[in-house]
Amino acid sequence: MSNVTSTTAASTAASAVKSATSSEIKTGLDYNAFLQLLVAQMKNQDPLNPTDPTQQMSQLASFSNVEQSIKLNQKLEAMTTLTSLTQADSLIGRKLTSGDGVVSGTVKSLQVTNEGTVATLADGKTIVLGSGVKVE
User: Is the whole model's pTM more than 0.85, yes or no?
Assistant: First the structure.
């Protein structure tokens, strides 16, 4: 009978991990998936040898710290993007020249991307703002 219980526990944990993986690819397991795994672990533990509650609370506290760090990083990213856009706004209408001097023109619009801030010039060309870019 213990084989059935361990198989059920393994399949429950596997399904929780699978659903968490599909919903939270970027950050790994989300908080709900962690709680599902914790409940599955508690439901399927050996009654004669239960899991140490101190260890479970330690795992929960560690996961909570990771979740707070992820939220803090997301807020910092948003602030960085806002700061970039605020600074970039002052470049509209000014002349930019790429670091190598090949591309030059008046800035029509700006966009913040993963590569950095990209300036679109009046002629449709783009320049990624970075070292060597000249602003006039």
Answer: no
